[in-house]
Amino acid sequence: MEEKSLNILFVEDSIDDVELTLAELKRFGYKVSFQRVETEQRMQESLVNRTWDVVICDYKMPEFSAEQALHVYYQNQIDIPFIIVSGVVEAEDVVYLLKQGAHDFLNKASLARLVPAIEREMRESTVRSERRHAEEKVSILSLAVEQSPVSVVISNPNGIIEYVNPKFEETTGYSNVEAVGNSLGFTILHDASSDSLHHLWETVKRGEEWSGELCSLHKSGQLFWEYINVSPLKDDNNNVTHYIAIQEDVTARRSYEEQLRRQAHYDDLTGLANRVLMIDRMELAIETSLRNHQSAALLCIDLDQFKNVNDTLGHSVGDNLLKEAVARLAICSRKSDTLARMGGDEFVVILPNIENNLVVKEVADRIIKEFSKPFVIDGADHFVTASIGIAQCPENGQDHQVLLRNADLAMYKAKELGRNQYQFFTDEINAKLKQRLFIERALRDIEYRDELELLYQPIIEPVSKNIVACEALLRWRQKDNSYIMPDKFISIAESSGLIKNVGEWIVKTACKDIKAIHENVDASMKVAINISPKQLQVAGFSDFVAQQLTQHQIKPHLMELEITESVLMNDMEETNNNLQALCKMGLHLSIDDFGTGYSSLAYLQKYPFNTLKIDRSFISQIEDNKNNAKLTETMIKMAHSLDMQVIAEGVENKAQLDYLSVHKCDLIQGFLFSKPLTKEELLVEIKRRNNKMLRLAK
Ligand code: C2E
Ligand code: MG
Ligand code: MG
């Protein structure tokens, strides 16, 4: 016989009775492990400390009873068979105890029913516990549905709603009673979602799941967006018994997404399209114009002097001005045009589908006119004009990058020509751009290619006709021995940051060359070097010059640095540091191209200038233009009164020389005496001219 084990808790005062029961169980093949208790406290301890299969309890004990034991049993919330085994008991008492929850009653004198009773009760207890678990599960599931943070709708296989949870009631405004009996999806806005709804039913009827976002209507009429998932529930035979829809309100997320989309495409301040959207629109305009054999135009607009308004009146005034500027641009463009803000004070207008150039001109003219009116800020008039560059598709480019760059270049041309105007992109601008790119690329490694040269133009004392100084002028020799002149590449070197290297090369070479002149022909020969404003903005420039002078043993006063008026007007801290240090070392300073800038006498007093160079434009007109002659005379007098020496630049003929001599111009530079020479030519020329006793160094 198969041995079965059983854990029994005996609530019994008689050991004999326990033995009796054990013998009966053994007869049926049970291996019993047991404990016997006869007080409430011991019973309680046993129930807590061990798991039992059965409780067998005596009816009456000296200190305990079956009734009390049942009480302890139920307090412990256990569900195992509780069987009373006792001597004779009144029938009413048995019934009473069974009502109290005992599972069976046996007379100890006839235990034949004991094993079947235990086995039956154990089976029933298992069934009870399984049912309890199932009920608990259902109750948790239904609680989950009831308290779900998303709407849950259950319908029959025909799509008729049988249940909606409280969240559904809250989101749609329809109560459970109102919803039940309606079709699944009755809150969905059918017009807007008919395709999706059709697809939904097709899918779920096939027995598959569907999910998507649909627009729903709240009972109050308010629209909202829901993420909806519908799945069919099937029975064991795979028949659909219900549909269950889970719906989540995603309006907040969608509006956030919409906001993000707006932010990604529109400018916050002005509400205009931003660069991203502008590029999109431009590509569309290009595509359409190419397809329709029409033209499209791109206007790049930059506000002139806007920075002044921002800097002097503050950013909030600047912001208001920009908004007003947008309003003006809007008046000037057509409905089909796109107006975009590229950032700062830069705007773009895209004109798609243009039949002829006149339309573009009209728009540009209108903008210029609108911006010629003052902006009234705090009761005061401010003039902020517009500079416009125009590029057209397909003539000036067929992709947005090229068109934007070309319109931008045309805009810079408009600025260059005095602002407050528009310029179309032209071949000339294009050629300039190409040249600029070529120069910039070539400049990058020019030092290593040995293509830079310094020429020296003699500076003459008009009475003795001796050469007293020379000006170093930079040349860039090409492979075919032609020169690129400095005005073609200095500004490019400046804007690309390459001027530092080029500038240092100039100082180094000039030091080396003048040293050779000092050693070979004239120890007092002065050399003038042109210094770009950008070089002076580099920290340590003065140290570099000092180091070169020391290395080549050149006296600082024999080197003159030519700077232009712009350096004085846009004085920066580093420029000031460099110039102060250079003056302190004893280098001479001269002001170049004087008269072409706007600097006043006050500027000239900022640094101890030794020399003033009158610009060639004055000298060349001395004979024909009385004003220029007079101005030249005044400049000479003024410089002398400030203890400065005067050099006239670009002297080309005798008449000019005579006028300058009469008015006591100290030194002359120009083709009349000499063009810029190589170092070797200069050596020969100094020897030839300064034919007196040469002040040879030695
Ligand atoms: P700048 O400093 O005013 O130099 C004088 C310019 O006038 C030189 O032109 C010279 O060749 C030219 N010139 C001299 N005499 C006459 C004349 O009688 N008639 C005419 N028509 N022209 C005359 P260049 O060498 O083309 O230099 C142009 C400008 O480029 C210079 O003007 C200077 O601002 C700049 N530059 C030249 N070399 C350098 C340099 O090494 N560094 C920097 N930063 N700028 C330089
Ligand atoms: Mg110069
Ligand atoms: Mg000059």
Instruction: Let me know the largest β-sheet.
Output: 9 strands, mixed
The CATH homologous superfamily of the largest domain is named: EAL domain
End-to-end CA span: 135 Å
What hetero molecules are in the model?
ligand C2E, magnesium ion
CATH level 1 class label of the largest domain: Alpha Beta
**Rg, please?**
52 Å
Q: What is the average of the pLDDT values?
A: 91
| Strand-residue proportion | 15-25%
**Overall body shape:** elongated
Number of domains: 4
Oligomer: single chain
Continuous helix count: 27
Percent range for helical residues?
40-55%
Q: Could you give the count of β-strands? A: 26
Name given to the CATH architecture of the largest domain: Alpha-Beta Barrel
* Class based on secondary structure composition and strand pairing: alpha/beta
The CATH topology of the largest domain is what? TIM Barrel
Uncertain stretches: 693-698
Could you characterize what this model shows?
α3 links the parallel β3 and β4. The protein has 698 residues and is α/β, with parallel strands linked by helices. The strands form 5 sheets. Strands 18, 19, 20, 21, 22, 23, 24, 25 and 26 form a 9-stranded mixed β-sheet that branches. The C terminus is likely disordered. The longest helix has 33 residues. Helices cover 47% and strands 23% of the residues. The chain folds into 4 domains: 125 residues, Rossmann fold (3-Layer(aba) Sandwich); 119 residues, PAS domain (Beta-Lactamase), CATH 3.30.450.20; 157 residues, Reverse transcriptase/Diguanylate cyclase domain (Alpha-Beta Plaits, 2-Layer Sandwich); 185 residues, TIM Barrel, CATH 3.20.20.450. The relative contact order is 0.04. α2 packs parallel to α3, α12 runs antiparallel to α13 and α20 runs parallel beside α22. The chain is elongated and about 160 Å long. It binds ligand C2E and magnesium ion (2 copies). One magnesium ion (MG) binds next to β23.
